[in-house]
Amino acid sequence: MAYLEIKNFNKSFGNTEVLKGIDLQVEKGQVVSIIGSSGSGKTTLLRCINFLETPNSGEMILDGVSLINDLSKNDSDALLREKRLNFGLVFQSFNLFPQYSVLGNITLAPTLLLNDKINKRKQKEEYLKEKTNIENDAKALLEKIGLTDKANSYPCELSGGQCQRVAIARALALKPKILCFDEPTSALDPELTGEVLKVIRALKDEGTTMIIVTHEMGFAKNVSDKVVFMADGVIEEEGDAKSVFDNPKSEKLIHFLSSVNNKDGE
Amino acid sequence: MSFIEVTQSLLGGFAVTCLLFILTLILSLPLGLLISFCTMSKFKPLKFVFKIFVWIIRGVPLMLQIFIIYFLVRTADGANFWAKLDTFFYFEYGVQFGKNGAGLGAFIAVLIAFAINYACYFSEIFRGGIESISKGQHEAGMVLGLTKKQIFSKIILLQVIKRIVPPMSNEIITLVKDTALSNSIGIVEIILQAKLFTQQAIWPLFYSGVFYLIFVGILTLLFGYLEKKLSYFKA
Ligand SMILES: Nc1ncnc2c1ncn2[C@@H]1O[C@H](COP(=O)(O)OP(=O)(O)OP(=O)(O)O)[C@@H](O)[C@H]1O
Ligand SMILES: [Mg+2]
Predict the structure, then answer these.
(1) In chain B, N or C terminus with fewer CB closer than 10 Å?
(2) Residue-range domains of chain B with CATH
(3) How far apart are alpha carbons A152 and A134 in whole angstroms?
């Protein structure tokens, strides 16, 4: 069985079926890209994986543990939160917390989780040790994304590319097993996409398992171990980057790729 | 009737004005937050009831609300409840509230009207502020494993506060001046106190205005300071 196993995800909003039986496997250390035209359900799939939406039916197993199944709809809030922490999600629009500094954005969630776990006053020493760890981890992450000098800046003082790199660091601070991206560069000026893609590339080289929804075909081709093409709520075609991009089989994928290429040529 | 005498009298009235102002704020701020949660509730009947309630309270003059609360509540034998309360406080505890006007009972009636009225106004400001925060902020908190409470208190709240400082400062300054409505049932706040002098002289009326100007001036500075304090981030 694969590291992440998604079986037969179905999701409807009212009468519109958005996901129609999605099966997806992701191996540990793999980078899987999801491509497809607008409205095909890519975001909805990522949101289901991150427990922001609940699929109407289907199953999700991570590392042998069933996270979504027929019974999981009744999960308590606490269990849901615990399950969420298996994944990280980077949004198209960054969604950084404006009132916290770059460092604050990265350390906020780990610190709050620590507060829940260890009593600040009763286990003072242990708490302080953990707190230092959190800060050191955050600083290491800042170095990784090349923003050490911006640690004390606020999001409004950063460029879009810098914001997105901070958002990636914020997600990584919780050490998720799988990091998901929803069009991480779509909100960026073209000249800023490179710096974000470089960070993702570096994560791949470290062996981070990632699922990336993207419109950057060149990047998808270059970074992915597997590419999944979605159309109208189903996985129309999947395979390694070479076969999907250079040797597409389904009509829809051929059509999609040619329309994307035309756009790039404009 | 010297300047000192007038000043002393007006200060007495101004104390009542300030008391009504402060107590209204203390009561209506949390109440307003509660009402805003109700009007945003996913439970439709609750939301509906409170939306109607807010609509009524905001749609009817505050003076009418004061009159209704003051004259509606009666004791079993048909007497005015608040007037009874006045005498009760006076005889039981020797409370003398305002020398030549309504007593503590009437003040409580007015306070209730003010607290409810302003809670409704504040609730709409709170609701607007809370709903204006993008869904992405909530979701970013959720995927980081935070509880609903943590998301509200650590992420949403300060952004809301920043956004509502300007409308809140308007509303609070309006409250300062609205307190004068309490004299409609005989509470001797500063304007009624000044009016008591008008048979002898007009200038105490102008003088009472100065008190308001100073009070509002201080509040304006305070809110300006708060706005500046929160200008370090954009939300
Ligand atoms: N909360 C919702 N309520 C109703 N319909 C929704 C909701 N979320 C998504 N949809 C619908 O589901 C469909 C798939 O949306 P989704 O955002 O998953 O597509 P996508 O592949 O991410 O598209 P894009 O490339 O434009 O981001 C769309 O038709 C959308 O209108
Ligand atoms: Mg999308």
Answers:
(1) N
(2) 3-229 (1.10.3720.10)
(3) 16
